[in-house]
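Reply to dn_fold:

You asked what the input looked like. This is it:
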Amino acid sequence: MTDKPIYIFDAYGTLLDLSAAARKVLSGHPDKVQLLAEVWRGRQLEYAWTDMALGRSTDFWDATVRALDSALVIAGLDSDMSLRERLLEAYSRLDAYGDAKDVVSRLNAMGGHSLTFSNASKTMLQKSLAASGLDRVLQGAVSVDDVGVYKPNPEAYAHIARYLDIDSREAFFVSSNSWDAAGAALAGFKAIWVNRQGIQYPFDRESLHAEVTSLSALPL
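and this is what came back:
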């Protein structure tokens, strides 16, 4: 057993603001921002999980690009191809949530261990963390690339436990994605759901260690 708190953070949607790309690029289409961001994220996960189920390689960037193409059509913005390139560039340089760096820095100052574990590819993850400045405070960044399955597949969570050489019960797992929190809880982690939208948890609430409305409310 370790005597220092270990916090594993999901990256996209938890530390990194997924809607930042749409807000920046679609400033001339404010009525399309929420629709595009939501469809983009939903299709991204759908395509990635379908790829995994079909036995295809885990290439999260490829799923991200295909999802954007669908989202642009649904939002009625597919006629402007310059938007596509600008959105992809902005997505690779997402902003961190306002409290992310402060919370991770406080955890580190307490003697804790902080890292992120993401479905994103290593290249995506490294670029996003560098652009947001999170690479300067996180003590590690791990991609599912090394295990070849996406969260919430149980083997993904087993992989991060092996990587840290811990029993999953020793670590907190923080995610704003309810499916991710559910997967982490099933794997034995102390799962904390960051419920920024104030919605109903769709899985077994009893399995959660805690529910918070922001990273700043984490029980450090």
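The radius of gyration is 17 Å.
Hope that clears it up.
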